[in-house]
Amino acid sequence: MIPSRYKARGQAFLNTYFSGESIDYRQVIALFLPILIDQGFLVGLSLVNTAMISSSGVAAISAVSMVDSLNLFLVNVFVALATGGTVVVAQYKGSGNDKMVSKAAATSLSAVTLVAVILSLVVLVFYHPILKFLFGTADPEVFSHAGTYLVGSGLSYIGIAFKEAVSGALRGIGKTRVTLVLSLIMNFTYVLLNILFVHFMDMGVLGLSVAVNISRYLAAACALYYLLRLDANLRIQLKDLLKWNFSMLKKMMFIGLPFAAEQLFFNGGKMLTQIYIVSLGTYAIATNAISSVFAMLLQIPAIALSTALITVVGQCIGRGNIQDARKFTRSFLWLSSGSLLVMGLLLIPFFKPLVSLFDPPAEIMDDLYLIMLVNMLAQIPLWSISFLLPGALRAAGDSRFTSITAMLTMWLFRVVLGYVFGIMLGYGVLGVWAAMQLEWGVRGAIFLWRYRGERWYKHRLVEPASGK
After folding, report:
1. Span of 153-162, 246-255, 339-348 with lowest mean pLDDT
2. In this structure, are residues 252 and 104 in contact, taking their beta carbons and an 8 Å threshold?
3. What gap in Å lies between CA 3 and CA 220, rounded to an integer?
4. Do the Cβ atoms of 64 and 145 come closer than 8 Å?
5. C-beta atoms surrounding 243 within 10 Å
6. Measured between alpha carbons, how far is 357 from 355 in angstroms, rounded to an integer?
7. pTM of the entire structure?
8. How far apart are CA 141 and CA 154, in angstroms?
9. What is the pLDDT of residues 75-112, one digit of tens each?
């Protein structure tokens, strides 16, 4: 039993920093916890899958890492559009206009799915030239595995796009428990099929490709069933998905298009740094892949907070409550940085057991530890202002500024300095990661300056319901 005085202090703390006129701390916790569990499972299962495919050899894990960087580049385009839907849905929910909430959700689903169809066709038709252009210097075995995985990934885009669009709309109205269930269905199916295809049937990268398709389309089918049969909030019908509300689409594109452009340029820059790493050899690719998994582990609570903040700020702005939007953003920033510190302290003692899951060559162990340690120290002060803060600005409608800033800092600092540090000065993967962390600091400083001003919340996306 918690003593009553401590319980009272905890409640007073939550009321002071995580309650406002728009939303109280109970609603914030109800929104955040399912996202946190979802993110934890997502990263944990990614860790298991990466460790599992590593049993097929360094070439296999290197190929999957390379293609996943390309997948991130493409998938984030329609995730960005889904975020536009989340912002508009959240603002309409905050304004009390439930009729427009339904229209916004339906428009988001249609637009995101159409973009995914186009991207899938492009990848399937041009997969070989794409791989040749991006990873032509990779070893032949790595290149062959990469081709198999890219085709499999391209086939799955429509499934993950529809699932993400539904999840984005549901997050906009605060229904994060449903998004958690959909994510668990997809990710647990993915892991179980990976165990079957990769471990027991020894299908390697092909098994991974089959598993990703079955799991993503199963999640999409469950999302569609929920919308049409179980949902009582969005009230979307099948015919609504075939209609195009262009005025609503314009609002979403105001948020989604700059964010999509940002993701293209941002992840394009990451792709270019990946090319640097490919040129350094298979061990360098494996070092980068395993280090990226550790970075994701550190960020589990922080990413969940960033996702939840979009809904919180969106609803505050929809109600016209700027003070609450500022307050929640400030509180989430401190909580996010604190979570990065705690996660780092928890992970350091388990470095060797976690690394052993990937069975890495002894030659890369020192680099892995150094990257993890330096990255942990850099993330505590820099990650939240660089990644969580722009989510709050974007939720208020300030998408153009955040996207332009992210694109410019990515290319002027991470890409250019990544080449200088990693290739010209010979620091390899360590140099590429150092350039990335320097870019976080520059970008975060710009976003802090924007947040302290007033222009970020002056945009007007939605109108309140009549009579409000």
Report:
1. 246-255
2. yes
3. 46
4. yes
5. 11
6. 5
7. 0.80
8. 20
9. 777 777 888 888 888 888 888 888 888 888 888 898 88
Residue 9 structure tokens: 């202090």
Quote the CA–CA distance of 151 and 67 in Å, as a whole number: 10
H helices of 195-299, in order, are 204-225, 246-279, 282-298
| Highest mean pLDDT pick, 68-77, 373-382, 419-428 | 373-382
> How far separated are the first and last CA of the chain, in Å rounded?
44
- The answer to whether the beta carbons of residues 204 and 152 sit under 8 Å apart is no
Report the amino acid identity of residue 288: N
Question: For residue 155, what are the CA distances in angstroms to 74, 119, 122, 410?
Answer: 13, 10, 11, 29
In whole angstroms, give the CA distance from residue 25 to residue 179: 20
- Asked if residue 241 lies in contact with residue 109, where contact means CB atoms within 8 angstroms, the answer is yes
Distances, alpha carbon 248 to alpha carbons 17, 107, 137, in Å: 34, 7, 45
CA dist list (Å): 259 to 184, 245, 401: 26, 21, 10
Number of C-beta neighbours around residue 34 at 10 A: 21
Residue 215 contacts by C-beta under 8 Å, 6 or more apart in sequence? 185, 186, 187, 189, 190, 193
Q: How far apart are CA 148 and CA 146, in angstroms?
A: 5
Please give the structure tokens belonging to residue 430: 């360590």
